Amino acid sequence: MSTATTPSAPPRRRPATAAERRNDLWLAGILLVAAVISSWLGQIAGFFGDDTPGLGWALLYAAAVTLPLAVRRRHPEIALIIVAVGFFAGVTFRIPDLYVGQVALFLAMYTVGAWVDDRRRATLVRVLVVIAMFVWLLITMFQAATEPVEGGLSTSGAFSPMAAYMVIQFLINIFYFGGAYYLGDRAYATALARRALEERTEELERERELTAAQAVALDRVRIARELHDVVAHHVSAMGVQAGAARTVLERDPEAATRALAGIEASSRSALDELRHLLETLRTPDAVAAPADSTVRLSALPDLVAHAAHNGLPTTLTIVGDPVEPSELTQVNLYRIAQEALTNARRHSGPDAAADVRLRYSADAVELEIANTGRPQPGARPGLGLVGMRERAVASGGTLEAGPRPRGGYLVRARLPLGAGVSA
Questions:
Q1: What are phi and psi of 310, to 5 degrees?
Q2: What phi-psi label fits residue 349: left (phi over 0), alpha (psi between -120 and 50 degrees) or beta?
Q3: What is the pTM of this model?
Q4: How far is CA 70 from CA 39, 53, 387, 418, in A?
Q5: Please, are residues 39 and 62 in contact by the beta-carbon 8 Å criterion?
Q6: How far is CA 108 from CA 155, 170, 266, in A?
Q7: Three-class SS of residue 261?
Q8: Is the pLDDT of residue 3 over 50?
Q9: Cα–Cα distance list, 276 to 184, 227, 325, 333 (Å)
Q10: What's the pLDDT tens digit per position in 272-294?
Q11: Nearest to 332 by CA among 286, 284, 288, 270
Q12: Number of H helices, E strands in the chain
């Protein structure tokens, strides 16, 4: 079964802004004034002698070649045709303006090349104007060469002054129209490249925001799973202890008291862990740490062995008298060690080695992962460091991470024991 594919739309440059349209109005007004002044001065200078038309015709010519530029970005083809017709008529009927009309015609042709998205139409309009210009130029030169004018250029000789004048006119017009054509096309290509870059930048920004949102959503789902595991652990323990207290309440009050004390400790631990987790979830910019209650600090030797087996020589040192922290603290410490060893194996080079140290003190447990490798060139930080820091914050602790002065990288997490120590 065949599926039809929709052809992608041709690239288009962005529409003209309000500021650019206002600039076109100013440009048309300035050129209009310049064309009137130029025609007036040319009439006073007597460029064409007695054949010079009156100033009223000069005003009409000035308006024809300049005012269409006010809409040159919105209707570039129409503006070019009107300016070209006005320019041809002005030169044919000897309007004494030598410069402003040429500037206006150049701008109009440049604008067609720079602003028309239909490239076939842009090419067709410009080519027709160029052909019309050269046909008109041939006709006027033929008339000038065949009409006897007293004091005009001589036409005698193999390469007469008249022939040289014609060649100069052709060369000037070739460079004039060729320059407008080329610069217009280059401006359009540059505008397309700039717009493609802006669209790609916006797309990457949207993808980055979407990826970040997805990462946050996934991490918060994992935190919710961990929240369920932690609460279930404490609630089940409190249920067992409450049952035991009820059973021995009458014949062994001391045992019932111990069971109730255990219920109290479990409830406090659960509330403390809930508070840390909920504070993490309430922070809108926090990337919540994934959690998994199936891992413990007792699994650190297996993690170290796994890292050594996968190319990162790793040692484990335990300092102090081991104390079993809360479920959440154990999970976070394990995951911090796992992420740090993964980063060391991935970014520190083939000769890296790592050292994991677990220190127990009276009020906290400290995990330190140091490696001796060097960061690979071009490596970029990802979400792993953010995740490790959020894990530490979720347990009420702190995390330090950065290069070591003597080389390598160090990650140190310090998490308080507090009321979360398991009985």
A1: -100, 25
A2: left
A3: 0.49
A4: 20, 26, 57, 76
A5: yes
A6: 35, 20, 82
A7: helix
A8: no
A9: 63, 11, 15, 15
A10: 767 766 665 665 544 444 444 44
A11: 288
A12: 10, 5
